[in-house]
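Example 3.2
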Amino acid sequence: MAGFEKVLYLVDGEDSTTDAMRLAVARARSLGAEVTFASVVAPYRSSLLGGSIAPERLEQLCVESEAERLEQLVDPLRGPGVRISTRVLIGDPAATIVQAAVTDDYQMVWKAPAEESRGLRERFLGSVDLRLIRACPYPVAIVGAHRPEEGRRVTAAAVDVNPGPGRDEVNESLNLRILDLSRAGLAENDTRLHIIHAWTLYGESIMRSPRAHVAPEELKALLEKERAGRQQKLEELVERYRETLSASERDRFTPELHLVKGEPSSVIPSELERLGVDLLIMGTIARTGVTGFVLGNTAEKILSRLECSVVATKPEGFVTPVHIA
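Structure, written as tokens:
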């Protein structure tokens, strides 16, 4: 896995909380990464301005004021072991951050959830958070300030080992990216890692109906065969990934595997709550080379139900819809 040397943290215009920012600095320090805290100022709209001050001058003053505010937020976070910088950008928040990430070679984008005091649930849809997840070609971390009891971190990686025409290669690529990101989280001490796969049997509800004429014993056998097949594929995925690691890395990579039955959008959030997970790593798309990408329905439903922090990533070949100058 390529190291995370540079990460970009978007500080919302109204975000004056620093708990999530402190956590971001701690994680950057554990990864050996430089973190840039960035704020985005809206551009002036000349048609709405008038009076004695030139619009360009007003925009400049807004940038200078935001730069001062950002420095005041960040200054207490500076310390040994981590490089911190700040910058103020102009434009639409999501698009401008994506442009900066691509142009300036950041490897990950971080952000605190909007209205953090109200919890994460139901706040991704229609927000800057979701637009970043949709458009950014690099992993996007929406990082809440929640810390588990006694400081122990519990991370989960949601993978898809469901076979299907044209899906295997893309799923494999995305799954390996997810496992890479989950291993990066192990840089923090005392981290517990779970790997989760949700599965269903195609046509189960129909086979349970009288018109299908499927005997209960036959359905039970089909369910067990499907479960066993998914379990095998999950174990094979983890073993293939372990083979790419050094001996010392394999010693640290000891995840617990979980096979949960049901629709992912329902059972994954429930499993995360049961396990006490505070960070989920997941994929968001099952296609490559898609411009104007629309977030997959399953991923969107999972995001809308999360209470924990999330890192969302895409498969190799994703093309951002944001124009890069």
